[in-house]
Design a protein that fits this description.
- By secondary structure, the chain is an all-alpha fold.
- The chain is built from 3 helices and no strands.
- It has helices spanning 13-28, 32-45, 48-66.
Length: 67
């Protein structure tokens, strides 16, 4: 039996914010590929502001990789 009203934390606004924090933690650990994966999830699921933040962090990752 599937519970239809089960709370989807990772898909919620709080969960999206947590994913941004998680991506930053991956970056701090030098794991840019995992950070990129999480940031792409935020871009797919987040609100406009969260997507902007995720895109900026992604741009920073690319810039750091190039330099």
């Amino acid at each position: 039996e599937v519970i239809e009203d089960e709370y989807d934390y990772l898909g919620s606004q709080e969960g999206i914010a947590a994913k941004l924090d998680l991506a930053r933690a991956y970056i701090d650990m030098g794991n840019s590929s995992q950070a990129t994966f999480v940031l792409n999830e935020v871009i797919a699921q987040g609100n406009e502001q969260q997507r902007l933040i995720a895109r900026k962090i992604l741009a920073d990752i690319v810039q750091d990789t190039v330099h």
